[in-house]
Specification:
There is one protein chain. The chain has helices spanning 29-34, 82-93, 108-112, 178-187, 199-207, 218-228, 259-271, 274-282; strands spanning 58-62, 101-105, 121-122, 136-145, 147-152, 171-174, 194-196, 213-217, 232-237, 246-253. It is of the alpha/beta class and 292 residues long. The strands form three sheets. A five-stranded mixed beta sheet has the order 7-6-8-5-9. Helix 2 links the parallel strand 1 and strand 2. Helix 2 (82-93) runs antiparallel to helix 8 (274-282). It is elongated and about 60 Å long. The model is unreliable at 1-41 (pLDDT under 50).
Length: 292
Amino acid sequence: MRRTLIVVAPVVALLLAACGSSTSSSSSSSAAASGTESASPSSTCAPTSLQTLTPGKFTVATGNPAFPPWVVDDKPESGKGYEAAVTYAVAKQLGYADADVTWIRTTFDSAIAPGPKKFDVNIQQFSISEDRKKAVDFSSGYYDLTQAVVSYKGSPIEKVTTVAALKDAKLGAQLGTTSLQAITDVIAPSNKPSVFKDNATAVSALKNHQIDGLVVDLPTAFYISAAEIPGGLIVGQLPNTADQKEQLGFLLAKGSPLTTCVTQAVDALRADGTLAKLQETWLANQGAPVLS
């Protein structure tokens, strides 16, 4: 999968700037999904000041199709799904009503390529990396990427709820990834983990029950468990260690005048607990519990 990265992004310091929410009283389904409150935007981060592609509008791109739990039913405009809900929450912080958010679709690869963009921000599980920053901008992270254990119904670890209960499991991961590092550092299993040249080979091993569980990043875990493993399931998310901070961020054009304000909006949502609430609603409660 495209997001299996070794690059580690630090947790961005809170900026707590005054980018507030919309003064309009939109009550659409996306407002309910984002769970944010209205406040007054700052003059520099208000729709009247922001240099968006279309004045007064906030153009957001996502994948085609967009998958749950990031977007539900491929309808980001509904505000349902973690990334859809986060987008509307950020828009409100910047002072946009739900009706002012316009959605378009792009491929992942075209979005991260250098050059002009047809969107103000793009959200489709982009891992923040220094290499990508050479071509595009990123906001601060709206999600601290976690590693997750994928298995199948009837496996020895199907009902595991703690990291300690994975000690004797047969686990595997792709060579040279943070997933493999998480097995060693977080789980510290009694059995040496199986190492695979790529995720395709690892998935095959899991299908054939040669391993009990495969460790991958959470976006990949959702895809593999839903589309590639018969009876697939996510056993749970692993806690991060201090040196494994990898984040997903909004992608913007290189040098975008919006980057600072979008970052401030994301940081405000992290600080007030909105991001944590949305993660609980759309990730943990959608089949990816956090292992204790």
